[in-house]
Every structure is written in structure tokens, then in C-alpha cells.
Design goal:
Elements lengths: L4 H7 L3 H12 L5 E9 L9 E13 L2 E12 L16 H8 L9 E2 L3 E6 L5 E6 L10 H19 L14 H12 L5 H11 L2 H11 L2 H8 L4 E4 L8 E5 L6 E6 L6 E4 L2 H12 L8 H18 L7 H12 L2 H20 L7 H21 L6
Parallel strand pairs: 4-9
Antiparallel strand pairs: 1-2, 2-3, 3-6, 5-6, 7-10, 8-9
């Protein structure tokens, strides 16, 4: 077999696993791999538990002639600080999810990439060999968000209407509680003086007062979410981790594949939707002027999906999960806002530049979170 020697040395690809994977892709046992290359997908910096994601692609000589193929290799690194399944970002969780077969037949029409193998490396890392599913990269509008929110409702509604919940010990049972704890530990520190100047520059007084009042209730709301009906949750469900299958005729959404199951958990109804909407705002995937409108639409679309699955429960329960999950993101977003705004205050006072658009956007995001907190207060009887 021939291969790319440099990529093999640098990335340590297991050629026997590569051969088995390619045979599965091409349907040819004993076919000869003609050549292959390895390219990073996205940043090489990785994150807390991911060393990188790479596309391995090439062609093979088969009885039917040359066949091109590609596979994705995701490299997961061990992390002692995240070596407990109770941690929202437990480093080994995604490898366990794929290795368990849990994702092979999800309900509600949600699909995932095939896993061709998990590889334990000598340095303790785990490599996932995954199906390469192309994303068209097109921006999303109302039709795409509606489809994704409704599919989430169908998927989670199945577990609320009889589909057995997975019971693996490595699935997180209190994902948001762990996330809040870690956010408080690592939120940016800002001196009172810097915070005061930022408040004056951007007129943040009322926003911070509302947040301070809400922050006194966050732990109680987190506990209340733990008492909601449970469902299987992704917890990183948003455009960057979703690939749409579109109709060839009119490009309307037909199917949905969810990537990156690192945060898989058993969570409350509506909780995943709140994170979906929160991340959609944070990533700039909907206009700030439409935050309020999209917030209502996201919930309506999700509720439609729950109804499609046969769930006929009290709709205040998913609404509470949705509102609380998104509003609680303020425990990270508000300190980040003050930090950014105080840094911007120094730049403006020094005459270096005008306030950044990112600060203005973050203000609108936290305002929306506080509006959701206000709506949430009307459901306090469910706590």
C-alpha cells in the first residue's frame, strides 16, 4: 500500500484501520489504496479536549475502477481536570457515546455520522474515525431554524412518550449545574472601578441591576430544571454542529445530521432548546433586531416537534426549560460583557478607536436573556 509518509509520521494514522475503513466505504475487500492525504478541518488550536479534526481523503483501485473516498478523524486528548463524567465537558464522553452504539438508531428522524472505529493511542488520547458528511455552508434563515427546532422536538419528544432513555453512567445527569459551576470559576475578573466606567460608557446600570436580581435565583432555577421530565439531550445543538440534507429541487430541508456529541446528557424538556437559541444569538446567526421574534418562534417550532412525537403535556414545562436554560447563560455572558466593555472604555478614552460592534451585540444578547428571565419569573410556581 502507498500512502502519504509525512502525514503518517506527523499524525500517526493506523494504516490497518485506514484500510479497513476504506474497504467499508468502497465495499471492496482487498482493494488497493492508491494514495491519500490528510488536511485539518478548521483551526489546529483545538479546544479543551479536542486536539484537532482532520479529513483523510484519497482514492482506491477496485474492480469497478478508481473510487474516491474520505473519512474524518477526530483526535480527543485526555484532560485530568475533566476526567469525571459529572463534568459537563468530560473528556472521554464522545468516544464512549460513539463506541456504545447509542447513536446508531436515534428516534425522531435525527441522524449522526457513522463511526468506523475508535482508536486508543499510546499517549492516552482517543481518535474517532467518522463518516465525512459535507455541509453546503449556506446561511440559515427561518426555514432552516424551524426545521432544526422541530426536529429537536421530535427527537426529544420520543423519549417523553415511551422511547427508553439511555442509562449509561457516563451520560451527564446535571449538565447545566456543572456548566454554571465552571462558568463561575472561570468568568473574567473585572475591578469595581473598571466596571463602573464601563457602566457609564454604555449605560448598563439597569441591565446589571436586573442581572444581579436574577443571579440570586439562578441556583434555584437550575435545581428546578433538574425536576423537569427527562429526555436525551445534545447540549451543543446549533448550526455549527448540524448538517442539513436539502431537497435537490427547491433546497428545502429534508433531514438533519447532528455532530459533536461531547456534551450528551439526560436533561430537562426544553433545556436543549434554550442552549440552541442562546448559541444562535452568541454566534451571530440571527440579526439582533430579531432576537425577540426568533425566541418565540424557536419555542413554537420545538413545541410542534414535541406534538409530532405525541407529547401532550403542559407546555409550561418546556417553556420553563427553554427560558431558564437561555437566561442562565447570563452567568457567563454578563461578566464577559463587563470585561469587554471596560477594555473598550480604555481604548475609547485613549482615542484609539470607537466602541466595538461585538460589545453592542453582547449588550443586546444579555438584554434578551434578561427579558427571558422576566418571562421565567411568571413560571415560578413550577419551581
Amino acid at each position: 500500500m502507498s500512502g502519504t509518509t509525512m502525514a503518517d509520521k506527523v499524525f500517526g494514522l493506523d494504516e490497518s484501520l485506514l484500510e479497513r475503513t476504506v474497504s467499508r466505504l468502497t465495499g471492496e475487500c482487498g482493494g488497493t489504496i492508491g494514495s491519500w492525504t490528510c488536511h485539518p478541518m478548521g483551526s489546529l488550536d483545538g479546544n479543551f479536549v479536542t486536539d484537532g479534526v482532520f479529513r483523510v481523503e484519497g482514492w482506491s483501485e477496485t474492480s469497478a475502477g478508481p473510487i474516491p473516498w474520505s473519512v474524518v478523524v477526530k483526535m480527543i486528548r485526555p484532560d485530568r481536570a475533566r476526567d469525571d463524567s459529572a463534568h459537563y465537558n468530560y473528556w472521554r464522553r464522545e468516544a464512549l457515546v460513539y463506541g456504545s452504539g447509542l447513536l446508531e438508531s436515534l428516534p425522531g428522524g435525527l441522524s449522526t455520522p457513522l463511526c468506523y472505529g475508535t482508536e486508543e493511542k499510546d499517549d492516552g488520547s482517543v481518535w474517532l474515525w467518522l463518516e465525512d458528511i459535507a455541509d453546503d455552508g449556506a446561511p440559515w434563515g427561518g426555514a432552516e431554524f424551524a426545521f432544526a427546532a422541530r426536529q429537536l422536538g421530535r427527537f426529544q419528544g420520543a423519549y417523553l412518550t415511551g422511547e427508553p432513555l439511555p442509562d449509561h453512567t457516563w451520560l451527564n445527569r446535571a449538565w447545566l449545574k456543572s456548566w454554571v459551576r465552571q462558568s463561575r470559576l472561570h468568568q473574567p475578573a473585572v475591578s469595581p472601578e473598571a466596571a463602573d466606567s464601563a457602566v457609564k460608557l454604555y449605560g448598563l446600570g439597569q441591565l446589571l441591576k436586573t442581572y444581579q436580581d436574577f443571579s440570586q435565583t439562578i441556583d434555584r432555577w437550575v435545581d428546578a430544571l433538574g425536576r423537569l421530565p427527562r429526555t436525551f439531550a445534545h447540549q451543543d445543538y446549533y448550526k455549527n454542529n448540524l448538517i442539513l440534507l436539502r431537497s435537490p429541487s427547491d433546497q428545502s430541508p429534508l433531514g438533519l445530521t447532528a455532530l459533536d456529541w461531547q456534551f450528551a446528557s439526560l436533561s430537562g424538556i426544553g433545556e436543549d432548546l434554550g442552549r440552541f437559541f442562546g448559541l444562535t444569538m452568541t454566534k451571530g446567526q440571527i440579526p439582533v433586531s430579531d432576537f425577540g421574534r426568533y425566541g418565540e418562534l424557536f419555542f413554537e417550532w420545538y413545541l410542534d416537534g414535541l406534538r409530532d412525537a405525541g407529547w401532550r403535556g403542559d407546555e409550561r414545562l418546556p417553556r420553563m426549560g427553554f427560558l431558564a436554560s437561555c437566561a442562565i447563560r447570563s452567568v457567563w455572558e454578563v461578566p464577559k460583557l463587563i470585561h469587554k466593555a471596560s477594555a473598550e472604555d480604555h481604548r475609547v478614552s485613549d482615542g484609539l478607536q470607537q466602541p466595538k460592534e461585538s460589545v453592542e451585540r453582547l449588550i443586546r444578547i444579555t438584554q434578551q436573556q434578561m427579558e427571558m428571565a422576566r418571562q421565567l419569573s411568571g413560571l415560578s410556581g413550577l419551581m
